[in-house]
Amino acid sequence: MNLGPISLRPSRLALGLAALLAAWSAAADESAGAARVAARAAARAHVRLDPAQAAMIAEEQKSDRPTRKADLGNKIFHDTTLSEPQGQSCASCHRANLGFTDKGSTSHGANPALFGPRNAPTITYAMFTPPLYAGGDEGPLAYTGGQFRDGRVNFLSDQAKVPLMNPIEMGNPDVPSLIAKVAAAPYAAEFQAAYGAGIFNDPDAAFTALADALQRFESSPLFSRFDSKFDAYRRGETTLTDAEARGLAVFNDPDKGNCALCHLTGPDPVFGARPLLTDFGFDNIGVPRNPDNKFYTMPAQYNPDGKHYVDPGLGAIVPRPTQVGQFKSPSLRNVAVTGPYTHNGYFKTLRGLVDFYNTRDVKPRCSSPFTREADAIAQGCWPVAEQPATVNKTDLGNLHLSDQDVDDIVAFLGTLTDGWKPSGDKKH
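RE: above sequence
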């Protein structure tokens, strides 16, 4: 039977089915996007500051003048005698003029030959981080909150203790030897006045008091200024440039950047009218291994895996394989001045990081997993993720942003730096 020539043109039925499938696909994507937004909003509804934490912050925020304990914490924060060997303070890795970071991919300790595995995060706005909360699902918001990039402790007072005793950081061998240094410090009398005349008789109590003073200093207005250009814009005191305004729009657009899914730019339902530019959730964005991470070359007593070391992130804190390689979404306040970026300092430039969000799953994989950011950009590739099994492939990786969109987002991120001063007319 001769059926005649076969037409290569699609039939009306085929076209109709294709259109219907495309509509279903678009509706599914939109529904999935709406579901993710709803899920993150639902998770945030459970996020709360500890009442004692909130009360302490309120006390320290009442005035621009530090309280007695916060002033003591300032002196401790800058004391270079509290490391072993002497020479390093908290301020060594958290410098005020660098957004309370240190500009290193990873940071060296009191012994300048020793380096940790992670990039020093900013401690601005860290006071508002809620305790680690288990949401119960297997997605990006299974956990929220906690201090450090992996949420391992709940409060700044707990966080303050860790570097002091870490052998790669400030290197104190034990609490009594640390407290002996504090008792000999110029501010020892102030310490006793704040925490009791006999405080040094109990090293553990003195260590807790020292951590309290540090957390009070880090909860003072110096660390939460809310005086960026973005804050002035939200108060109606200035306008954004065209590029900044476009960048904000793309940042917020759920069909484009959708950065605000994790980095909230509007009033926060938990923390009030001033956005913190984070939802405190955890995610694995697929960051590559950093060839410049000096932890790879540390002695076996600190890093027995050598160059094969991979950072487990939250997976080292909670016993769930879905959380391996996840790190807390940082606040983007001051992000323009706090590079390098990500947990291991892989990204040296903010534009490179935004481009990675946009093209991670579009560009081919680099031939070497140890390809630097600049080389990857030049080669038109991205290295494989440090922890590939748990990478978030839903919310980033192929955002379909133009080069202009990427540049505009970077311009907007520049408005988040504290200490902005208007130039010329109030409206500009």
